[in-house]
Amino acid sequence: MSDESPPAAVEERVQTRVEDEGPCKKRLHVAVAPEAVRERIDEAYRDLIRTAAIPGFRRGRAPRAILEKRLGKKLEEETRETLVAETLVRVIDDKGLEVLGDPRVHKVEQEDTSKPLRFEATAVVRPSFPLPAYKGLSVRRASARVTEEDLQRALDHLRRQKAELVPVDGASQEGDVLIADAHLMDGESAILSREGVSLRAGDEDVLGLTVAEAARGTIGVGPDSTLEFRVTLPQGFKEERWRGREVTLRVHVTDVKRVELPPADDAWARQMDFDSLQDLLAEVRRNLETDKADGARRQMENDAVEALVAQVPFDLPEEVVREETNRLENRIRVRLLMAGVRDEVETERHIEEHRSRSMEVASHGLRAYFVLERIAKEERIYATEDEVEARVAAMAQGQGKWPNEMREELERTGGLAELRVHLREEKVRRLLLEHAQVADGE
Questions:
Q1: Total domain count for the chain?
Q2: Tell me, what's the pLDDT at 418?
Q3: Which of 23, 103, 364, 436 is deepest in the core (most CB within 10 A)?
Q4: Which residues contact residue 398 at a Cβ distance below 8 angstroms, ignoring those fewer than 6 apart?
């Protein structure tokens, strides 16, 4: 399928043809008339003559023939490259193509100066699809009920904040805390060392790495024990040369401690600045109800988006999905920053877990992005600078930074643009839920 435009569509001396080349991809065939090329080259020589300093000639007086001999090939190649880039921009604008990223130019050729300058370009374009009705979507009400189990878990979490670590004489049990020196080793050379790290017996997480054998290996050990595990370093490891390499994780346990929780009574509640245990429980319940309500709202928003995206099936080019995979990883970094996670190893662990299903997630997320973007355009929804600044300030406060420091960090990592998308999508999701048909049900 092709779209043949008249020669004068872009300008009189440019001819174009656009062909479909797979999902959301276009191939552009462009021919620039030889006289247009000659004019640009002549103009380039005139500019060069005015500025070139050639021995034996005053500035602006050097003959063109000498410049052609010395600099002609390079100048003409650069002029053609500039002409190709400028023509491509005009062709894209004339055709009304919404291009994602930079088009790839190839097959640039001009047989001789009497023939047209021809080139081809492939461009990924924004998907075109009919937007289904997005008001009145059917969603089921998510449960926001606080159970006694929820209350007990929250209470235990608070007790753990006031817990004491007491030394253990015997072997470690699941949940105990191991104080250890941990080293990533390549042979007998240390790649990374951390002293005095805390490990949870029975957990797989060591130095931000997921080590399945550690879940068993950290149980039943005592002080002065040395454990070794073979691990493959993640692609996000800070030193690029070690990424994907298998190394040894050596853990030397120096101490074993057990978590001792305070009793849940009035005395403990007073330590938490409450008059009684009942007052503390009432506050915990109120906080849980707020959190549950927020979680239920997010679940219903997600269900509304899922229902909408299911009605808009379209394929995406693999390279777009790969690029979105990288953007999703950046969004994870932004979300972790917003949540106050500052440890690089912990951040990379989250990203590594995401990579195992990243292409599928990216494809689905990208379709949702385009659908939500269309709705934002229809409803004129956008994130204001005041909203961006307020969110940046909140993130900065959570991390103990100045807002300008937080903004600079986001700008440096590309997170500021992702934050704007995040804020815009929050508004669209709220719109979908506000206009949804919500049915009761657990």
A1: 3
A2: 86
A3: 103
A4: 338, 339, 340
What are phi and psi for residue 192, nearest 5 degrees? -150, 135
Residue at 189 is within a domain: yes
Indicate whether 297 and 426 sit together in one domain: yes
pLDDT score for 339: 63
Question: Does residue 331 sit in the same domain as residue 241?
Answer: no
pLDDT in tens, 124-144: 888 888 999 999 999 999 989
Q: CA–CA separation, 133 vs 192, rounded Å?
A: 54
Please report whether residue 144 resides in a domain: no
Residue 230 is part of which domain span? 164-260
Q: Determine the pLDDT at residue 7.
A: 39
For the segment 306-345, what is each residue's pLDDT rounded down to a tens digit? 999 999 878 777 777 777 777 767 767 766 766 666 566 6
Residue 401's φ and ψ, nearest 5 degrees, are: -120, 165
Residue 152 DSSP label? H
pTM of the model: 0.64
**Are 250 and 290 in the same domain?**
no
Q: 21 and 55 in one domain? A: yes
Hey, which residues does 19 pair with through a beta bridge?
A: 2, 27
22-37 pLDDT tens trace: 888 899 999 999 999 9
Rounded to 5 degrees, what angle do the CA atoms 119, 125, 127 make?
Answer: 150
Which residues, given as ranges, of the chain have pLDDT below 70? 1-12, 328, 331, 334-335, 337-359, 441-442
Residue 274: how many other CB atoms lie within 10 Å: 17
| Alpha-carbon gap, residue 320 to 323, rounded angstroms | 5
CA dist., res. 303 & res. 438, Å (int): 11
Of 102, 125, 148, the residue at which a domain comes to its end is 125
Q: Is the separation of the CB atoms in 197 and 149 below 8 Å?
A: no
**10 Å Cβ neighbour count for 271?**
10
Nearest to 427 by CA among 362, 373, 363: 373
Q: Which residues is 197 bridged to in the sheet? A: 180
Note the pLDDT of residue 137: 93
Same domain, 288 and 429: yes
Q: Is 138 helix (H, G, I), strand (E, B) or coil?
A: strand
* Gap between the Cα atoms of 231 and 206, Å rounded: 10
